[in-house]
Structures are given as structure tokens and as C-alpha cells.
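User: I'm putting together notes for a lab meeting next week and I want to include a structural view of one of the chains we've been expressing. I don't have a solved structure, so I'd like a prediction I can at least talk through. The sequence is below, exactly as it appears in our construct file.
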Amino acid sequence: MNSNGKINGKGTSVQAPNDTISESTGENNPSVPVSKSKVSSRFRHVAAVHSRSRTSCLSHDTLETPSFLGFRNLMVLVLIVMNLRLVIENFQKYGVLICIRCHDYHRTDLLLGLVLYALVPCHLFVAYIIELAAAQQAKGAIGRAKRTADMSQSKTSRITKSFRSTWRIIAWAHALNATLSLSVTSIVVYRNINHPLIGTISEVHAIIVWLKICSYAFTNRDLRHAWVKPETMVSSMPELYRTCPYPQNITIENLSYFWWAPTLVYQPVYPRSSSIRWLFVSKRLAEVASLSIFIWLASAQYAAPLLHNSLSRMATLDLPSILERLMKLSTISLVIWLAGFFAVFQSMLNALAEVMRFGDREFYTDWWNSPSVGVYWRTWNKPVYHFMRRHIYTPLVGRGWSSNAASVWVFVFSGFLHELLVGVPTHNVLDPDDFRYTALRKDARHQW
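Assistant: Thanks for the context. Below is the predicted structure for the 448-residue chain, given as C-alpha cells.
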């Protein structure tokens, strides 16, 4: 018999089982030395399990950071189970609250919403007419500048003064046009549209068009200034713009593309994709439809009754009850917000970008990993962030404002737009009539 086998009764060599086991973790771990001592297969119970000093994986002394992926999966399962329990509890308490025919809206609301949706983009084309006139004026200014080489200094100064005053008129025309596009819509929504969803859609559309008008005016103003001063044209203009220099960008086609492009920042040229993937578009639209239905169901079945039951607790200023209700509302609010974020920034904007062959589709970045609130605000809504940085923050810093002061102004401006977006459709903006009504009620109570 050799060292690895033995001879049976028939004279056949039989392989013996492995008679050695490692006292350590084995050969697969190169960081652990394999013990040279061997234990016979007859003495398996004497293997040295504790052969070296080791630490618990959750201790601070551990050399390798453990993975917590399993804990994350466990928390996800716990959240799913907890929310399923709330779903069952909701159905047991309220039953089915979904009612397709129970929506109270007037035909006037729908008609006004359609009229506003059709009329608001007309202000974009008014901005195009203003810019067309400005381009013609700039061409005339360049022609006069070429003829002023032999003119006297006084005549040249008069031409320059007239040129600047004309540009001020153009700026006021843009400001009036942009103000009308937003103010008229806000007044109509606040006074005449009672359905919050129709009012919100109309107000969102008006704010988007208003921001596009502002960007269109600001960008073309700088392009016009650079065109009048050719010495700054090459050094200050991006390389991308050379394929469509000013004033070749002042066309209906160029403006129409900017109207539908998923961006708030105007450029004469955008990066474009080569073709349209209609299957991709259909998938994104299916996601928008599915998530919209989910948001509607979650709002009607869970959020609405929870909010209704919270009003009485908040009216009595019962702090423990208020805290408990806020925790309940925070869960369903977060779920609805996440569904709305994915539907808008991932599905809807990507579908629109694919149809428009819009190349830059970074509508958000990983805001869920933000180390601070400032990083979160800069990453979760990139279209608005690009507008604020390009047309508000950077010009203010260029005029001598500090970074903190410019950031505060951007925050105030963003808050004003959010108040319009929420307060106007829900009729929560303070009205002078409300003050007079409140004063009359106080006088009546005092007299009584």
C-alpha cells in the first residue's frame, strides 16, 4: 500500500479519501498561510479551527470593510412589508375610494386651459419679431459704423447714442412681452380656473415659456453685441455656435426647435442625435402613463383621506398627533414625489429629447448621493439649474456680487417661481379682497 491508497482483497488499488485538511481557511485565500501540519483522516475532530488572531467584521479593528448590501435589501423588504400593511389597513378602513366620474371640473376650466395652452407660445413668436427687428437695427449700425470712419467725432457719438437707445427699447419690449406671458396666465388661472390640475398644467406651461423667452432674449443680446464687435466674436463665442452664427439663428425653424426642446437655455445650435428610436419613445411614454395612473391612485386612495383626517388634529394643536400625522403623510408624499420625478425627468423628458433628437440628456445626476442640500439643489433639476446659473448667478457675479449674495438671490427667485406654481392653481395667493373680508369679519365680531 502506498501513501495515498491501499490494496483490497482482490488486489485492486483503491484511492483513499483525502486524509489531510487545512487548519486554516484553505488554499483559495492567498492572504492566509496554509499550515503544513497534516491531520490523519482518522482524527478529523482535532483540526485547529482557531489558528490565528482575528477580529469581528463589525469591529473598528477589522482590516477589511464589510459589505452592508444584505442590510440594504433587508430594509427594502421591511419597507415593502410595512407599506403593504398600510395598504391593507387603508382598504379595511375606507374601502375603494377610486372614482373616475367623481372629478368635479367645469367645462369652462377645460376650455380656458386649452386657450391658454394655445396662446402662451405666441409670446415666443413675439420675441422672434422683436429679435428680427433688433437684427435689422444691428445690421444698420454696422453699416453706419463703416461709414463713420471719415465722420466727425460728434456725429459718431450721436450715432452711438442712438444705437444704444434703440437697444434699450428692444430690452423693454422683451421685458413687456415676457411679463405679459406670465402675468395674464396667472391672473386667468387664479380668477377663473377652479380645477387644480388644469390650473397647475397651465401655470407650469406659462412659467416654462416665460423662462424660454428670457433665455432667448438674453442670449441673442450677447450674440448681437459680439456680432457688432467682431474683435470679441472669435474669443468669446463657443465653437459649437460657428455652424449657425448670428443673425442666421433668427429664424422660425430655430425658434420652433427651441420651443419644443427639453431645455430652458437657448442656444443657436444643440448637440443632436442621428435618428429617432420610436421603440424607445413608446417605452418612455408607457412609463409616463403608468406612473401617472399610479400617482392618481396613490393620491386618491391614500393621500387624500390621510390629509383630510389630519386637519382636525392640526386644528387642535395636538403636537403628538400632528407629528404622527406628518410621519404618515411623509411616506406617501415621498412615494408620489419619486414617481413624479421618474415620470417627468427620466421618462417624459427623454421621450421628448428622442423625438427632437436632442443630444444632451443629462436632466439630473445622482442627487440621491448628495452630501449637502446645495449639491442636491444643483443636481436634481438640471434644466432649471442651468437657467439659474447661466442667466442669473453668473451675470450677478460678473457685476461684482459675491458668490453667497448671488446664491441667495437665485434662491429667492426660485422660491418666487415655486410660489407661483403652487399658490396660483390652488388659489392660496394673498388677495386684497381677502384682507377686506377678514377686516369686515373682525369688525362684525367686535360690534356683536
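A couple of points you could mention at the meeting. DSSP finds 13 helices and two strands in the chain. The CA atoms of residues 170 and 176 lie 10 Å apart.

User: Perfect, that's what I needed.
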